[in-house]
Amino acid sequence: MKKKYMGYIFPSMLSFLLTGIYSIVDGIFVGRAMGDPGLAAINIAWPLVALIISLGTGIGMGASVMVSLNNGAGDTKKAAKAEGNAFFLLFTGSLLLTLILFLFGRPLLWLLGARDGLLPLAYTYLQFILLGGIVQIFASGMVPLMRNRGASFYAMCAMALGCISNIFLDYLFVMILDLRLMGAALATVLGQVLTLILSIIFYARKKNRIAFADMQPDRKTIFSILKVALSPFGLTYLPSVTIIFMNLQALKYGGEEAVSAYAVLAYIISFMELLVQGIGDGSQPLLSLSKGRGDEKSLNLYTAWTFSLGIGFGLIGAFIFVLVRNVLPVFYGTSPEAAAYIVYAAPAFALVMALYGLTKPAVSYFYATHRVVRSSLLVYGEIALTALFIFVLPLFIGLDGVWYTIPSVQVVLGIFCIFFLKKQRPARSASSSYVK
Which residue ranges run through the membrane (predicted)? Predict the structure, then answer.
């Protein structure tokens, strides 16, 4: 069992690890080429860009859970229907979201805090990202579907090719050709094109082809996918919602330098978030399949391994973060003022990294085992708590309230995770159907 588990986990972890490395390197290139304005602009635009990735991931993970649950329960027809309808949702969702962002991108960026010189910079980045919006949604949505079919290594290769090419193209476009934010956006899109090409090749194979009849929309199937998709969508998009609140308050209490400092801190903690999300997403097929079969012994074992890995990596990451906090501003090319903020706030954000090892796998565990209410409470409760703390704490302690918002939220969520995990119910009977 352990070998089988690691066969799912390690490719997923490596995939997300590469994504995390890319996000850090991307910030380094932009920071060195443009300084604080470039980091601030890309950070302000990111919540809109992240909608694209989060939509694809939410649909892909939601469908993957329903496929595994129904396969575990022995209902292969409903499992095939769920996978086929995922492609329908990816297509319609990508068209709708891309159109909305094209039409309303500039006013949305203004609402997110892009003013004066930051608005044209952020809008440039968004415009070129949207050129490949449909590609990115399909690429991010098809990877979890491939992983769910047992092709974890292939899915890792698809993600890895996109991430590695992204880093190379970032260096070429941003540093060599001096295309700045336009270059960073184009590098992201072209990297996702390569991921999508490998995904299409996978589903073009005869044994992996989706029947056209299964792609035809079915209301009950779509509802079951979207119901589960709310949690992985929120889990993926939550950091971007946090960025919106943090940017606005950092700008208000600390100026552009504080926004730049938070951009660096956000890059670093996102690395850990992606790593533990890789653990959660990698374990999803086995957790869902065990849940669908009613195999409580396997479910409990996979759950214990998932949380052990998540908490272990969270603690290690937090320790390393504290050790290297003085070096980070040098790599990102921040101003001395932003560098001072980074060094000061790093210990608080290290606590966030440690707690991510518990809270993020917990969300993945709950939606993988069809405990949708609990996973949604954790995901959207995090958004509500962030909105509350980010506006209340600074009223009393100024900019410190901004830095301590995310750690405070994670402490509260950690308590709820422990409470929910202690309130477990027996695994569902294998004879049950998960699409009503």
Answer: 7-25, 45-67, 87-105, 125-146, 153-177, 183-204, 225-248, 260-280, 301-323, 338-356, 377-397, 403-421
